[in-house]
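Structure first, sequence second, as always.
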């Protein structure tokens, strides 16, 4: 007979993961085996993705900010070989996120390649979750010039915030950004309000992801080894961020501020656990 993890142990595992612990440190903290931690992550992550897909709909947003963040699965792109690809998907992956500037709700996210095809698929999903016309801001990446019109047509006020960089600072490491000399606000579609052309909130959300998901930390061996686990962790992180973590400025969760939830979720709540159990077998 297979060992059954108690609810207290499940809560401890999920709590550790959403606070940025690695899988191995979660094993040491909770005493749950690595295989059991990964199975629980996959099950809960899939449930979280399904729940948010259903709950975050008809969002009355005003200003959406979109960006993408780099990570990798298995190995970096330069180290990908045919043998590694046969063993499973590996190489660089990008996580697209769309955040609403007022409620701080992450409306949608997607893991894929940094190209116009994935950007279009992602933005089509964002557009399908909105109930009204919005102002959209992205960075100056060229893929968005194709992706945004394909997803929204002319039904959006879209602008790009293009950063102007100088030369690399002397003696800088490869992870040090070049000096930003300024930004340019470029109108692309409609009539965006220049006062609100910004990517500050979504860039801050990128930092949240790096700090609260160990597999996003650079220069470590904590990177994801399998794509399914990577996607599951991102779904779990956003479920906790949107529904369970009280925003310091809002004093409520982003989902409550956006009207997608009426209460603060808890990892320990039997009521909330039963809601997720209705979508998958936990």
């Amino acid at each position: 007979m297979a060992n059954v993890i108690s609810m207290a142990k499940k809560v401890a595992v999920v709590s550790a993961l959403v606070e940025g612990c690695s899988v191995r440190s979660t094993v040491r903290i909770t005493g749950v085996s690595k295989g059991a931690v990964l199975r629980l992550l996959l099950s809960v992550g899939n449930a979280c993705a399904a729940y948010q897909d259903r709950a975050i709909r008809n969002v009355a947003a005003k200003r959406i900010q979109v960006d993408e963040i780099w990570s990798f699965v298995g190995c970096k792109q330069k180290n990908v070989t045919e043998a590694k690809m046969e063993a499973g998907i590996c190489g660089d992956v990008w996580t697209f996120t769309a955040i609403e500037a007022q409620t701080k709700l992450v409306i949608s996210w997607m893991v894929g390649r940094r190209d116009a095809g994935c950007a279009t698929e992602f933005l089509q999903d964002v557009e399908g979750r909105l109930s009204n016309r919005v102002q959209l801001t992205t960075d100056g990446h060229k893929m968005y010039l194709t992706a945004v019109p394909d997803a929204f047509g002319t039904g959006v006020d879209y602008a790009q915030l293009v950063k102007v960089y100088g030369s690399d600072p002397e003696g800088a490491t490869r992870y040090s950004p070049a000096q930003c000399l300024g930004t340019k606000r470029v109108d692309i579609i409609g009539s965006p309000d220049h006062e609100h052309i910004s990517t500050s909130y979504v860039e801050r959300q990128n930092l949240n992801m790096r700090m609260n998901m160990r597999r996003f930390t650079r220069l470590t061996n904590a990177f994801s080894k399998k794509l399914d686990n990577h996607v599951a962790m991102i779904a779990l992180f956003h479920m906790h961020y949107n529904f369970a973590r009280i925003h310091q400025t809002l004093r409520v969760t982003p989902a409550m501020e956006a009207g997608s939830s009426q209460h603060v979720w808890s990892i320990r709540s039997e009521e909330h656990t039963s809601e997720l159990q209705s979508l998958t077998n936990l």
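Margin note: The longest strand covers residues 63-73.
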